[in-house]
Every structure is written in structure tokens, then in C-alpha cells.
Amino acid sequence: MRRVSPRVRRMYGILQKKIFLDAGGRVPAVFISGMARSGTTWVGDLINYDSGFRVLFEPFIPQTFGTVSPFNYIQYFPVDAHSRLHEQYAQAVLAGRVRNKWLDGGNDRLFYARRMVKDVRTNLMLGWLRRLVPGMKTILLIRHPLSIAASWIKLNWGTQHGESRLTDLDAILSQESLLADYPLIRSLGSGLDLDDVLTRIIFQYCIMYHVPARQLNSGEVYQLFYENLLTDFDGELGKLISFTGGSPDRALEGSDAKKTSRTNYLRRDFSNGKASVLDQWKTIFTGAQIDSANHLLSEFSLNELYDKDGRPATDTFLK
């Protein structure tokens, strides 16, 4: 039998990502939102245990579509905002009418009956998106802020993005409508040393969760703490899969708590035990840094999300 050349295989892969049937309907079966490094990709992989979802990977990054996308980087919208251009684009994304190499990079089938959208820059417009598409099953990922900060610092994230050379926080704070709707952000930001990388990341964390906490009610989204999934994998995954309409038994058969996602950039080894992942931040930051982070979190009423050991202290942080 004649061997298929690498070039032919590459061509087939490119065509396959453009030629497939998305029968997921107008509403995505699942929408996953969170902050970068909160576990969104890993959770998406767990939900998609049978590869039955077409996964749209971070479709609201403007660079993905260049001038086509009307969205800012980490766009803020109040729940009742009206913009025909933004609404049309968002509905096209959620209905699966957009395709490109970035969005569909992890998809490899010819037919999909369900659709999943995963994005780490949508927390500030999550209420608005849910108003556009009522009934959309939404998962909000939460992870300990210092775990996220430790990961960001190691990866040198949050320093700049795109050609503008702005930081993620700059992009957020440049939106006057956000500062007008949430004056606490402006007043606190003016007194912070935003040249300090840890302060900048914790401040961004506060904003990224303060806004959905004010826009959403506890019954509207599935709140998933990363730490709970890691420490009680079977129990948490079973509840999560039931929420998304899948089979918990099949998901547990095909999933592994130690299996990492394709965005495991730090090559963390889950086989070394949960503590190596959950508690690493305790060895990275000083007591003074931890106290400073907790003080800033308290200004946004987010300091009680976790106990002193870094484990979730509540089931919900929404109203």
C-alpha cells in the first residue's frame, strides 16, 4: 500500500478543519468562562470526553479575526448594553457560523452535534452574553488568585499584548464605561502601585470576578472551583457532566485527573500529588505579599472565597 506523504496529510488536516458539519443549533450547549490559567481548557477537555463537541477556542480575542471583530481586548459590557454590531458578531460566534484555524485548532471530526465555546476574556461581558442567548449553559471557573498569579509571573503574562504593547490591565482600565459603572475600580486603582507585577495581577483578578459577581445570580451559572475538581475529581466531574447533559459514567471512564490540558505551558506533573499544584504559591510569595494580596481582595469582598490553607471556603460567590 502506498504511503501517504506528510504534505498530503497536512493538506487533509487543513481541509478537514474547514469542511465539517456543525449541527449544534443556534445556542452552544456549553459556554466556559474564567480567567487565564484558571483551568478552562482542562475543564473543556474533560467535558468533551468523547470528542462530541465542536470547541470554539477563545473566539472573542480581536486578533483572531483582525479588523472583522468589533470587540476590544477583554471587552466590558453592562448586561443591558445594546450594540447591533457587537450583538450580530457575538450571535454569529455562539451559533457556530465562524470558522478559522485558531477557533477550530483542536477539532478533528467531520460532524458535530454539540458546540462548546471556551474563552478566558469574557468575564466582563458574561451577563451581556447570557442576555443575548437565554438558557445558555454557562460554567464560570474560579481558581485561587495567588495560584493564577504564580503561573502568570512564571510565564511573563499580563505584561503586554499585541502590537499596542498595552498590558491586559491597561486594556481593561481604558474602558471608561467600566470605570463609570464600577467606581470602586477607579478609586482603588489610583492608589495602587501598578508597576508591581503581583499587585497588577491581583487587581486584574479582582476586576475579572467583581463584575460577574454584580451581573449574575448564583442560579444562572455553574460555579466551578478548580481546587474542588482536583481534590474530589470523581464527585465534581460527575456533577459537571450531569450539568452539561453528558454521561457521568462514560466521562469518568474516559477521564483522568492527572491528565493535563494542551495549555499546560508550565508542564506541571499532576502525578506528583495535588499539593504540588495547589500549594505551590505558598513557596513563591512572601508573607507580606500574601497579606497585601488579601487586603486588595478584601476591598472587593473576594477575600473569603478561600480559607487560609488556600481551599474554597464557599460553594458560591454570586448573589
Rounded radius of gyration (Å): 20 Å
The helix fraction, in percent, is 40-55%
Number of strands: 7
Spatial separation of the terminal alpha carbons: 63 Å
Order of helical and strand elements? HEEHEHEEHEHHHHHEHHHHHH
Q: Which strands sit side by side, in order, in the main sheet?
A: 3-5-2-6-7
Unreliable segments of 5+ consecutive residues:
none
Number of helices: 15
Beta content comes to 5-15%
Average pLDDT metric: 87
Looking at the structure, what is the overall shape?
Answer: globular
**In terms of structural class, how would the helical and strand content be classed?**
alpha/beta
Major sheet characteristics: 5 strands, parallel
Verbal overview:
- This protein has about 325 residues and is an alpha/beta fold.
- It has a 5-stranded parallel β-sheet.
- It has 15 helices and 7 strands.
